[in-house]
Amino acid sequence: MADNLIALGVSVDLCGVVGADGGQAWLFETLQHLGIGSSGILVDPKRPTSQKSRVMISKQQVLRVDRERKDPIDKDLCTALLEKASSLLEKADVLVLSDYLKGVLDGHLCQELIKRAKAQHKIILCDPKGRDYSKYAHADLITPNKKEAQMATGVEINDDDSLLQALSFFKDKLQITTPLITLSEQGMAFLDQDLHKIPTIAKEVYDVSGAGDTVIAALAFCLGLGYPIKQACHFANAAAAVVVAKVGSARATYAEVLDFLQKHYHKGQKVLDKATLCALLKAMHPPKIIFTNGCFDLLHRGHVEYLQKAKALGGLLVVGLNSDSSVRRLKGDTRPICDQDARAFVLAGLECVDFVVLFEEDTPLELIKALKPHVLVKGADYAGKEVVGSSLVKEVVLIDFVNGHSTTNTLEKIQNLTHN
User: Fold this and answer.
1) Residues marked as binding?
2) Coiled coil where (predicted)?
3) Burial level of 261, CB count in 10 A (0-12/13-18/19+)?
4) Which residues are catalytic?
5) Which residues are annotated binding-site positions for ATP?
6) Domains (ranges, CATH) in the chain?
7) Tens digits of per-residue pLDDT, 344-372?
8) What pLDDT is stored for residue 207 in this prediction?
9) Lowest CB count within 10 Å: 74, 129, 155, 233, which one?
């Protein structure tokens, strides 16, 4: 799960218990390589480091061998782990309790961590195991699969009524804010005021190893950014679809998830009209939409670096492109040099650009109102000036231009060559 979070661009600190063996050395080395914090991992020389070995034949897992101990860790180690986790929790946005019933996350430790996290207004997610879910009480979200939910609630889930009954058990009996059940090929379902079912969007399934970890990691990522649970579920479904199409315990990067969503909902097409793009974004539910706009006539290095920096802010980049008539009103009858179809085609060819949408107005205000981006990007020359649409977004980012590169400079060079 930590690896999945790193792939999404999240800073992660891991807490747990390992043995004093070769597995411990490998784990710490791997965590360091991935950039995952390991200060919360304690060593118990009386236990082995838990290891799972999978046997694969023709891209299918046929056997798994586990080396582990499941008896509870001793009280002193539990107390030390609680203090370590509590210290790390202070700088975190989200607490994820990933329970594999290996003797670490007992009822006392879970409830103490949940209590401390709630006192600090942190988001709490639990990936549960076993029959007794009371140790996850008062968490914000739990993610059992269908089999696990049936075991914990005693409800056989075979239709929407029984699904609602199982989810209601978690919500009413355990005060889970948003109980969620993953339903394999049927997607997932969650309960807030109403029952919501999110269908799966996986096309190819090679290996389901790690899919559950991917789902809760993606949910933690989205909820940590402040996005609604339904939007988070759509993103998590896409992340799971990316992972199950790979072999082994894979992970899904943020770029892979957005690319999957784009291809799934609109077959990879980048240049869209406003109505189509609005409908697509509503279906995709991207956690972060970045918007910038311009004429982008005679695309040059300055444009490309500007757009690359905008994309590097970490989200889906939408470029609003002034139509030909809009450019003429802004820059005169001699512009644009390239027509709107050519300019849109070239922009869409850039890897950093996710979507291009034309607008006829002199400003992109109406487009911004329709698309509802989270971040608005403009050039650094807007410092101290009012940016159109700034009141409609969460953040405005100004990006420096590359010196010596502009459409005006390019046209002047062409004119000088012509005159000479």
Assistant:
1) 145-148
2) none
3) buried
4) 213
5) 145-148
6) 2-261 (3.40.1190.20), 269-419 (3.40.50.620)
7) 999 999 999 999 999 999 999 999 999 99
8) 45
9) 74
